């Protein structure tokens, strides 16, 4: 991801992009310029980054979006995972034994 992208009535510029091979992800700091509209939500940012990077939405993690005071700009830190995160299954609670009183 490089340069500027204009989506959702906001312009997105990449400030910093680091590849982190240990954690198998890319760490990106973005500058969002959103004139006359509210700060984009995390969901909107996830959709935009997923389509522009060609990855699934589950591979995008928005750590934060901070709005600057008095200016229509926000800083965002985003993690783009190289692979989909594993699905965690919750263990089912054990059934009570028959004849046991509660």
Give a topology summary.
Blueprint: E1 4-7, E2 10-20, E3 25-33, H1 42-53, E4 60-67, E5 73-81
Antiparallel strand pairs: 1-2, 2-3, 3-5, 4-5
Tell me what you see in this structure.
There is one protein chain. The protein is mainly beta and 102 residues long. It has one domain (4-81): 2-Layer Sandwich (Alpha-Beta Plaits), CATH 3.30.70. Helices cover 12% and strands 40% of the residues. It contains one helix and five strands, in the order βββαββ.
What attributes does this structure have?
mainly beta; five-stranded antiparallel sheet; 1 helix
Outline:
By secondary structure, the protein is mostly beta strands.
Order of helices and strands: EEEHEE
Main structural class? mainly beta
Q: Please mark out the parts with pLDDT under 50 across 5 or more consecutive residues, or reply none.
A: none
Apparent shape: elongated
CATH fold topology:
Alpha-Beta Plaits
CATH level 1 name: Alpha Beta
């Amino acid at each position: 991801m490089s340069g500027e992208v204009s989506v959702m009535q906001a312009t997105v510029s990449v400030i910093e992009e680091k590849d982190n091979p240990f954690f198998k992800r890319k760490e990106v700091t973005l500058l969002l310029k959103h004139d006359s509209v509210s700060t984009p939500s995390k969901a909107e940012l996830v959709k935009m980054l997923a389509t522009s990077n060609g990855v699934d939405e589950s591979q995008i993690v928005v750590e934060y979006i901070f709005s600057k005071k008095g200016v229509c700009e926000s800083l965002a830190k985003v993690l783009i995972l190289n692979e989909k995160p594993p699905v965690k299954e919750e263990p089912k609670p054990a059934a009570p034994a028959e004849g046991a009183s509660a």
